[in-house]
Amino acid sequence: MSRLSLETESLLMRDIAPPGSIKETWYPNTTFSMKPTPESEAAWGSLMPVGRGFIYRPEIAPIVKSVSVFHQLHCLHGLRTSYYDLHYQIARAAGAPIDPFLEQKAAHTHIETAHQKHCFDYLRRAIMCAADANLEYVDPVTDDTTGWGSERVCRRFEDVKGWAEKWANGTVMDTSRV
Fold this sequence. Notes:
two-stranded antiparallel ribbon; mainly alpha; 49% helix
């Protein structure tokens, strides 16, 4: 292979797959684990790129593809929403007051059991595929780990999001849906 074609291939590969890794330390961000509120839903929505992770790259395949991380976030968000909806319905049955935001959210984001099952298996496979081997501190008292406070090497999420936006399929632009 000639030097020119190696350089061209290198540039093409850098453009096909988003580059970059970063060292970071994780700390809790309760915005993503709290019950659905306008604030938490805006935070989840901010994770989605324009096009919701659906891209069109003729160099990769002649059809629209989905970037896995955004499918994974969609599944996690759906499971989170279902979890809080179930807790809300149990509380409502016990006489808890109506939460207008949760009522509205449940009416528009209910995911079927088959979709939930898909998401559990899909996320299991995604976790195993990535096989994150970063090391986490173990609490010497509880012999447990939260995952917080340990330095990690991660892919730069904003680079992946930007790459997905650059190659967004023009037919799926609604970023309000996670």
